[in-house]
Amino acid sequence: MIDFNLKDKVAIVTGGGSGIGRSAALRLGAAGAKIVVADLNQTNAEETCVMLKEQRVQSVPYTLDVARAAEVEAMVAYAVKTFGRLDCAVNNAGIQGEIVPTVDCSEENWDRITSTNLKGVFLCLKYELRQMLKQESGAIVNIASNFGLVGSAHMPAYSAAKHGVVGLTKTAALEVAQRGIRVNAVCPGPTLTPLSQNAIDLDPSIPDAIMTRLPIARWGTAEEVAEAITWLCSDAARLLVGAIVPVDGGYVAQ
What we know:
Distance between the termini: 29 Å
Oligomer: single chain
Helix content: 40-55%
Number of strands: 9
Number of domains: 1
C-alpha cells in the first residue's frame, strides 16, 4: 500500500456509507485523516464509522441529502466545528436511477438523478470551497464516471449528470487554482459496488456485456478507486488541477 500522508487532515466523504464512498473513507482514514462520513442513510454512515473506529481513526457520521443547500452548508459547518478545518472533500454521493432509453426516461427520473448527481456535487463544491478559500488550502475530488466521458445507451440522465460533473470540476479548478486549492475528478469504470449490483440484479446480462469492453478483462474494486481518490487528496498529486482521471481498466481508452 502506498503511503499517502494525510496525517491530521480533515476530510468529508459524501455517500460514505457504502461502495466507493465507504472505501474512500477507510483509505483516507488509513492515510491519517479524520473523517466526516456523510450519507443519506444514517445507519450506513454509522457502520462506516464503526469500521473507522476499528482502525483507530477519528470519524463522525452525518446524515443529509446533498441536493438540499441548507443541509450541505450545515454539513461543512459541522465538519469545521467538530475538527477545526476542512482539508479534503470527496463528493461521491450519487444514484443510478432507471435504465431506459432517452425516449422512455421520465421527467421524474431525470430530475431525481440530476438533482443528486449534478446539483449535489455543485452544492458540495460551493460550500466546501467557501471554507477552503478562507484557509487558502484544500483538495476536492469529485466522483464522475466513465459515462461522464463517453455516452451510455439507456442511461441518459446519469450520463448527462456525470458529463456535467466533469465540466463543473474543470471550471471550479480554474477558479481556485491560485488560492492553494485543487479540484479534480475520478471517473470510475465498471466497479463492484452495491450500486452496480442493483443494476446487475435488474439485468443479469450486464456483466458479460461489460466484460467485452474492458481491456483489463475484469471489473474494478471500490478499494482501487479509493486509492486514486486518496492520491488526488494528497500532496503527491499537487500538480494536478482540473484533472479528469479515468479509473476504468482502459474502458475509455478505446
